[in-house]
Structure formats: C-alpha cells, structure tokens
Design a protein that fits this description.
Shape: globular
CATH topology of the largest domain: Uridine Diphospho-n-acetylenolpyruvylglucosamine Reductase, domain 3
CATH architecture of the largest domain: 2-Layer Sandwich
Strand order of the largest sheet: 4-5-10-6-7
Distance between the termini: 64 Å
Number of helices: 10
Strand content: 25-35%
Helix content: 25-40%
Number of domains: 2
Number of strands: 14
Length: about 290
Amino acid sequence: MITSHAPVHCPADLAEALALRAAHPEAMPLAGGTDVMVFVESGTLSPPAFLNLWGLAELRGVQADGDGLRLGALCTYTELEADARVQATAPALVEAARTVGAKQIQNRGTLAGNVANASPAGDSLPVLLALDAEVEVASVRGTRRIPMDALYTGYRKLALAPDELITAICLPARHPADVQYYRKVGTRLAQAISKVMLGGRLRIEGGVVTEARVAFGSVAAFPVRARTVEAALVGRPVDAAAADLVGADIKPIDDIRSTATYRLEVARRILQGWLAAVAAEGASSSR
C-alpha cells in the first residue's frame, strides 16, 4: 500500500505538468481522486509517486471548439450537468453525469478521470463513443487528438504514450437531426456500478437513419460499439428488430455483479426499447 512517503508532484501550470510527466512517467496523474483514493485505501494500488493536476487552470472549463465543445479535463460531473452548452450539445452526457455516484462524487470526479480510469463500467464512456468524441492529449512534444473509438486497446489500457496527459474531451456539434440516448442498468437506481450501459445516437433524415452509433459499457473488456447493429439501422426507418443482432457485437462475461446471459438479454432489451420509442415518436410526428 502507498504511504505518505510517496512523493506528490504539484505543478503550477500545464507546461510544468508536461515537463514533470516526461521526467516522471511512473507518477500517477491525480485529479478528483474519487477512484484512485478507493484503490489506494484498499491496497490494490501503490504507485511510486503522484502528479497532482487539480490546481491547473488550463484544464478547467467548457469552451467553444469550432462548432463543437472542448470540455477541460478537470470538468466535474456537476459542472457538466449545469452547463447550458453541454445540455444543448450532449444531453445524453448530462444524463450520464447525473448517474455517477452521489453528489459528493459528482462535485469532485472529473470527466477525464473517468476516461483515464478506463473501467469497462465507466459511466460516461458509452455516451462519448456514441457522440464521436475525441480525447485531446498533450506532452512536451505537442498536442494530438485520439478518436474515442480508438482510445482503448485492452482492459484498462489506453493508446497514450507514457509522457502524455489527457487535457480535454472534444465533442462535435450536435446535428439537428440527431437523437441521443443514455441508459444505465444497475442493482439499484442510485450510487450503483452498472451491469449494462447503453449510449446511443441516431441521425434520422427524411424518416431514414443516415448515421447510427450504438455503444455499450460493462459488457466487454472496454466500452464497445455495436457495429453490426449500427449497420442494420442505417439506410432505413428505425427498426427495433435491429436489437436482436446485438449478440454479434458484445460478448459479456460472468462476474460478481451479473451473468453473461443477463447482460446480453438486458442489452438487447434496453436497445430494443429505445429503438421502439424512437420509431413510435417518428410515426406520431409524421401524422
């Protein structure tokens, strides 16, 4: 278990943070700490040092990014919930933020921390996949963006170099024909780790789906898109029967929270329910 003797590097600004990251790649980045402190207390995590990012003003706030939004790495769930621009651009992300832990966790936990933690059950991750988000990372060598769909390379493994830090999550502009969705299924309605999560986005133009994103969490080693389902949805009116194809895209496991059979059936049902609701709403509005 880590002790108080583990050094904590506290940079004054982002430039110093990146220099420290390059010099001390073994140091664990620390922001809200809502996951890290749990692991440290349980003895399952003992990094040799920490890199404290909490005081960096450059990593805070919501900014315009062309027609989209740039969400600073230290944006908390509470800030996301309250921001009118996020509400307008990514209502499904706001809904996900509301399901994260208790208010104390929402006040301290950060979006980039959820992304960097890389848990298959990370509440925001299926939504970020569905929204085609990009993860901005920086190092002393420069800045680049990684599509959310290419970020995870395995269980809790990210496509980041050892000297890189996540600096922001970038969202494209919301298309006027887009419909977004988020659903979390857990043991209880609040403060629960998910058994299955669904993040969805459909672009419906002229009664036909022209773009589909269907992403699940807690059903694989990392959040995944259901590409077979997406392909079945595109080019035709919304059809809830596409949910029957979800078994081609996800292979859940049995664990302490649930069984593979349960997860697969719940994934199919919540997707079917959303698609049916969207189809019914479209039929009603066309009358």
